[in-house]
Design goal:
251 residues; six-stranded mixed β-sheet; Nucleotidyltransferase, domain 5; 26% strand; binds beta-D-glucopyranose
Length: 251
């Protein structure tokens, strides 16, 4: 029998967020669990923390593991905001060794995008080009064309004012530089303009931890494309990771 409540794990540069997800409804059946990302954030330390969350939540069935890396064929290829030893690591296989169940790993922003393009998400039924951006420790991106994901887009590393865009406009930079909403949104608007000029999206979805404050800054954002907040807020990565695990189960 297929499990309909699956664990989604969302590893970030600052915290690991997790929850059991009802994959038919796309909602958490538990409170969101959040623990600090271990330092150093090696695969071993992070996956041990993930295995402990799995045990504590009493999860069953396959697990979805969202990580802040390009993921090709289950292997992490980059590590901008986590320990460099993630590069070349098959995170899903290593977590399977710890918990004894199948694990599917994917990029964290792609996971958030998968959730937002599904039932209950901000991009459900939207055709054309949709770009989801997560603003947190870095900037993550997910690109959809007629609801099909183009994985591992990494728009946070687009060169912007001579450096990676995420070094100018992430949520972490807003906190570190104590930017008020209008100064931060001015930077984000420049960034959205650049993305718009390159990809001509129909819709931008603003996700990541900052999306929970969208009512405070959303009116300051501006683009010829429509802009919507992520419907799943900061939980989108968890929900999308669990969806990815559910798809694996269907195969
Ligand atoms: C990473 C991306 C990730 C994003 C958000 C970036 O630094 O390169 O893979 O999606 O941060 O965590």
């Amino acid at each position: 029998m297929r499990d309909t409540i699956l664990l989604g794990l969302d590893v970030g540069g600052s915290s690991i967020k997790a929850g059991l997800v009802d994959i038919e409804r796309g909602t958490l059946t538990t409170e969101l669990r959040s623990v600090r990302t271990p330092a150093p954030s090696t695969p071993e330390a992070v996956l041990r923390a993930c295995a402990q969350i799995d045990r504590e939540l009493g999860a069953t069935g396959p697990v979805g593991l969202a990580i802040p890396s390009v993921v090709q064929g289950g292997i992490a290829r980059t590590a901008a905001n986590v320990d460099k030893s993630w590069i070349g690591c098959a995170g899903g296989v290593r977590l399977t060794q710890l918990i004894g169940r199948p694990v599917v790993s994917l990029n964290d922003a792609d996971a958030a995008g998968v959730a937002e393009m599904s039932a209950g998400g901000a991009g459900k039924d939207v055709k054309g080009v949709v770009i989801l951006l997560t603003f947190g420790t870095g900037i993550g991106s997910a690109l959809f064309v007629d609801a099909e994901l183009v994985p591992n887009t990494e728009f946070g590393h687009l060169e912007f004012h001579g450096q990676d865009a995420e070094r100018t406009a992430s949520a972490r930079v807003r906190t570190e530089e104590r930017l008020d909403w209008s100064s931060w949104c001015a930077r984000v608007n420049d960034y959205l303009a650049r993305l718009y000029a390159l990809f001509w999206p129909d819709l931008f979805i603003i996700g990541g931890s900052i999306s929970e404050d969208f009512d405070q800054f959303g009116r300051l954002l501006d683009s010829p494309a429509e802009i919507r907040p992520a419907a799943h807020g900061a939980q989108a990565g968890i929900v999308g990771a669990a969806f990815a695990a559910a798809r694996q189960q269907q195969r």
